[in-house]
Write a structure and sequence with these properties.
Family (chains A, B): Belongs to the SLC41A transporter family.
Largest sheet of chain A: 3 strands, mixed
CATH superfamily of the largest domain in chain A: SLC41 divalent cation transporters, integral membrane domain
Radius of gyration of chain A: 29 Å
Helix content of chain A: 55-70%
Main location (chains A, B): membrane
Distance between the termini of chain A: 71 Å
CATH class of the largest domain in chain A: Mainly Alpha
Largest interface: A-B, 119 and 119 residues
Membrane topology (chains A, B): Multi-pass membrane protein
Number of helices of chain A: 20
CATH architecture of the largest domain in chain A: Orthogonal Bundle
CATH topology of the largest domain in chain A: Tetracycline Repressor, domain 2
Oligomer: homodimer
Shape of chain A: globular
Pfam families (chains A, B): MgtE, MgtE_N
Keywords (chains A, B): Magnesium, Membrane, Transmembrane, Transmembrane helix, Transport
Chain lengths: ~450, ~450
């Protein structure tokens, strides 16, 4: 590990101010691809482009592969076509798969022609799968031998070349179907004439090309192997998934979840151009505006009441926010449970009952506290009772919505991490305002 | 891979209803530890305990290790002391480190005594580090040889036993300091008399015991190695971090971030007892209530205005929520940047300027749209201008707060993922209400 990234970023920024970036560029070029990508993403656009131009050409594709799409596309747009022809000289199918969503079609054509025949075949094969299927992400460099091979054959294979993340040799039958795997370390201890089938691993996990990307990657992370074989529907060995790819895919999935909670995607650039960034976020603001106007419309139905009891207007945020928080707690728990496969038809009822009880208990406690505070603040016992009931109603409906909503969205194939919270707060806002102002109309006028 | 987990959970629940759980238990016991842990976490408490009791005793500690604290503690409380004595028979320091926060002290004593002398030493060593230092999580099973060893020595070592996730042999000098590492696959190709120092890896990354857990784990994930050596301040080889531990630590960190956004921790149990669950969530509701009352108090300063212009009360949620959403987008982006080490002193100013411009642009656009809608809805151009200005002020201050707040919290060593959003929405609520009602007081009365 060279110097920590924040230091490097600071040096780049300050050297740029001194107009002598050469020294820092040399330091940067000694870092690994991921670190260079991270540093580039941290730089304002102009400095990012000038730093990019100063990188050694043979690193550029590998660095681009490690970047998020938005900051990456800024560099792609800034690179002239003559440079691309040279950069693509050694490109492989795996890198092109990572870049395909960012490259304009003329560059895709250029890059595809630069692949050799086998790499072109790998590329075509991978693009038969969506990026949520593990078949899209497999690598083809692997140790594989026929099922009747002996330790001697394995040793010869290993001495030639061992691709990274190889801790096993895959054995296939004549039709290329996966049969079994042998640990490399077993091979070294064994006499040369022993058939490999005598050394195979019991219960070797096997992935299918159509397996969900995140599920398959988590399975590999847990398995303790450095890579797992990936087969097609006919059990034919198609390639393998390795731990570095798996952890990238898992981490990306988590990042997507975190960013989705604010209506952004994981490719959002720290320094994207202002217009683009504003556009990216405008949709979420717009959706939210519609839900806010909807809530306002419900409040508007009680204009007369508000005019007479202005305390209701003062306390509205309390009712809405308690429901929103209680609901989002339930929602977050259920969304995680769905992602882990822990929330199912079988335990749904039990879960709902438990969340209702938790909501009821917290509802009663906070309703009473808030009721007392409100009645003292506005010297009105009736107002205290009204807000008390409204809070109780809102927290309990929030719990119900928090359980039902994500399960429903999941059934409809809508990501509950993205749209769950905006729908939930719409529900809790409206239920809260209507309960509070409705009860106020009944009991306070 | 046996059957998918949701099926297994459903079978367990329905078999329990038929009062014949034996068959499903056999299926469950054939799964790996993580899957069993996941299934147990998905079961309502009583069924969870009865399923747990039916598991083979020699799997129980390994399954407990894979569970989250809250659901795990329910099983710990339900297990009699006589059973523990038998379960602890083969426990190792690493498992005990995972369980130490969940076990009551009498069970900790019992387990510690069951460790052999070396394991006790490992345990003591690890507990010198907090769980945010990688020294807490290292394993001690490793391939290590003196710096002057030859290929012959390496082959002898490997034939004896290769711990999982070993793709390198560590070389140490006489004082036990880490000197270099050699790839296992290099050893196999080389003649027996070659000194290992001739085969060493250039630029092998080395972790320090005091490195941050997540940073070190991410570094290993990227390195492409199956494990990395971990040294102390004097460069003494203390152990190693392997990819399975690293991915568990990284995934746990992401989960903590997701759960923190709703004020929960990652150990929250789907089926924790109602009282416990209500208590866990009450603190967050309470904090939120204080901020809601604070917002109400600010609204209360404008009671007179609200009474005269009730439309202000109707539109309050629109102003507050647009600021909240815009601010949380900036906040989420900056929190991720901080976590990745991408937000630093050097680029802070540039980031702030960019977010201000994005906020300004979205602020102007949405302020005009909302101003038009409001003036048409309430047939009042003045009201339209008031809400237009209030939205603009609120979205721009939200952008500022979204940049400053997480950086400030990070400096104060407070997790911005946990407390950022609650403070941010307090700011945007108050700024929104005061701007809207204040401008309303000035221009509409």
């Amino acid at each position: 590990m060279a110097e920590p990234l924040p230091d490097l970023i600071e040096e780049l920024v300050s050297d740029a101010q001194n107009e002598d970036p050469a020294a820092v560029l040399t330091t940067l070029a000694s870092e690994d691809d991921v670190s260079i990508a991270t540093v580039l993403e941290s730089l304002p656009v102009e400095l990012r482009i000038s730093t990019w131009e100063g990188l050694p050409r043979d690193r550029k594709i590998d660095v681009l592969v490690e970047m998020r799409s938005d900051p990456r596309e800024i560099l792609i747009d800034a690179t002239p076509d003559t440079e691309w022809a040279l950069m693509f000289a050694d490109i492989e199918a795996e890198s092109l798969l990572e870049l395909m969503d960012s490259l304009p079609s003329r560059l895709m054509d250029l890059a595809f022609k630069a692949l050799d025949e086998q790499q072109q075949a790998f590329f075509r094969e991978a693009t038969q799968f969506t990026d949520s299927e593990i078949g899209h992400w497999i690598s083809h460099e692997q140790l594989a031998l026929p099922i009747n091979a002996k330790v001697r054959d394995a040793l010869r294979l290993i001495r030639r070349n061992v691709p990274s993340h190889s801790d096993t040799i895959f054995l296939t039958n004549r039709s290329g179907q996966f049969s079994a795997a042998v640990k490399l370390t077993k091979v070294f201890g064994a006499p040369e004439h022993v058939p490999l089938v005598e050394l195979t691993i019991e219960n070797m996990p096997v992935l299918k090309v159509t397996d969900d990307t995140t599920v398959a990657s988590l399975q590999l992370q847990r398995s303790g192997f450095a890579s797992l074989p990936v087969v097609d529907d006919n059990n034919k060995l198609m390639g393998r998934l390795d731990v570095t790819s798996a952890s990238e895919l898992v981490n990306e999935n988590y990042e997507r979840q975190v960013m989705a909670s604010a209506g952004m995607d994981e490719d959002e650039d720290l320094f994207s151009p202002v217009a683009k960034s504003a556009r990216n976020r405008a949709l979420w603001l717009g959706i939210n505006l519609l839900t806010a106007f909807l809530a306002s419309w419900f409040i508007g139905m009680f204009e007369g009441t508000l005019q007479q009891v202005v305390a209701l207007a003062v306390l509205m945020p309390v009712v809405a926010s308690m429901g929103g928080i209680a609901g989002s707690q339930t929602l977050t728990l259920i969304v995680r449970g769905l992602a882990l496969g822990q929330v199912t038809k079988a335990n749904f009822r039990a879960l709902m009952m438990k969340e209702l009880k938790v909501g009821g208990l917290n509802g009663v406690i906070w309703a009473i506290i808030i009721g007392i505070v409100a009645s003292v603040w506005f010297s009105s016992a009736a107002l205290g009772i009204v807000i008390c009931l409204a809070i109780l109603v809102n927290i309990v409906s929030a719990a119900l919505a928090g359980v039902f909503l994500p399960v429903l969205l999941d059934k409809l194939k809508i990501d509950p991490a993205l749209s769950g919270s905006v729908i939930l707060t719409t529900v809790t806002d409206i239920v809260g305002f209507v309960a509070f102002l409705g009860l106020g109309t009944l009991f306070l006028l």
